[in-house]
Design brief:
Elements lengths: L8 H11 L6 E8 L6 E8 L2 E7 L2 H18 L17 H5 L14 H11 L6 E8 L6 E8 L2 E7 L2 H16 L3 H7 L4 H4 L6 H13 L17 H8 L8 H6 L2 H10 L4 E7 L3 E7 L5 E7 L2 H20 L6
Antiparallel strand pairs: 1-2, 2-3, 4-5, 5-6, 7-8, 8-9
Helix pairs in contact: 1-2, 4-5, 4-8
């Protein structure tokens, strides 16, 4: 019997999905640092109902690392047999071994590092962090945004595949950095008198501040977008996330809040429903795209008003999703 030729992890994983009639692996860069003394890329791969992470000093290494770790999981599940399709030996980098918690991974994506950083600044009477976009590069399906966070002389830089992620990651790096030099920063960058006056003095003010900290960084408005191009906001996001219309059709036809959430998850958006008045009931639905999107409805009860609100929302979204691509 001829000896099997060992292949790289990504190739073996791809062949495994074809053999088992599974969807192809989906790779995503969830965090990257470039331009420093040692570059770093964090990849996640989703395949066969599992997720695996890989970290390395190049995209190729981190991608193969993610595929390698996915194969290890699938071997434990009995899905992959290394004897049938051997993989070349893959040695994890030092970064991979040290990465107990990768910024931007699913376990950390819900953390609000910007809010926590602002809380520390308020508690220690330090000026607020300043976030600046340094670059926006790459094709629509693989955009990379680099943001800087600055407090006094402290500066951190991080790159992510969305603006929100890049801001959160640079805030996360600043959190780790500022804790070691708090006494110096308190003297160097004290909060100005006018900022002090805005500090909360009641439970209601604190609740408002907490909500603001929760929301800050979740919506990045594209000031270059013209009103006449508003209708294409969803089409642009579909292109950006490499999504096709057929992936949304079932959920567009279902017209429920759950199906709306599934649609928005695919293009990294969120929605919120607010009740403005009880009788008659007035409700509004907001979607945090880079240009304002809101619908309103009025009815005798919350149930009927919400149903009408969703119906109106889906009427608009169905039109927007079926628009032809921009020229």
């Amino acid at each position: 019997m001829a000896k099997q030729t060992a292949k790289n992890p990504a190739m073996v994983l791809q062949e495994l999905t074809v053999k088992n009639n599974l969807a192809p692996p989906e790779y995503e860069v969830i965090h990257s640092i470039m331009g420093s003394h040692e570059n770093r890329f964090d990849y996640i791969v989703r395949v066969a109902g599992i997720e695996a992470l890989g970290t390395g000093t190049s995209k190729q290494i981190s991608k193969h690392g993610a595929a390698h770790n996915a194969l290890l999981k699938l071997e434990e599940m009995g899905v992959y047999d290394p004897k049938e399709n051997p993989v070349v030996e893959f040695k994890a980098t030092a970064l991979q071994n040290a990465a107990g918690c990768i910024p931007g991974s699913p376990s950390n994506s819900s953390l609000n590092c910007i809010g926590k950083l602002k809380d520390i600044c308020i508690e220690n009477k330090i000026e607020d962090p300043i976030f600046t976009e340094l670059s926006d590069v790459g094709p629509p399906h693989a955009r990379e945004f680099t943001y800087e966070c600055k407090i006094g002389s402290l500066r951190t830089v991080a790159t992510g595949n969305t603006k929100k992620m890049a801001k959160q990651l640079t805030a996360k790096d600043m959190l780790a950095k500022i804790k070691n030099v708090l006494p110096d920063i308190i003297l160097e960058a004290p909060r100005r008198d006018e900022e002090q006056k805005t500090l909360p003095h009641s439970e209601q003010d604190q609740a408002t501040l907490d909500l603001y900290n929760k929301l800050i960084g979740t919506i990045v408005v594209d000031k270059k977008t013209k009103v006449e191009n508003f209708g294409h906001v969803f089409k642009r996001l579909m292109v950006f996330h490499d999504r096709k219309l057929h992936e949304f059709l079932d959920d567009l036809n279902e017209k429920t809040e759950d199906s709306l959430k599934r649609i928005l998850d695919k293009i990294e958006l969120e929605h919120e429903i607010l009740v403005f008045q009880e009788k008659p009931c007035i409700m509004s639905l907001f979607i945090n795209c880079d240009v304002p999107f809101a619908t309103m409805a009025c009815g005798d009860s919350k149930e009927s008003t919400k149903a009408e609100l969703l119906e109106t929302t889906f009427e608009f979204m169905d039109c927007f999703f079926h628009l032809k691509d921009e020229c």
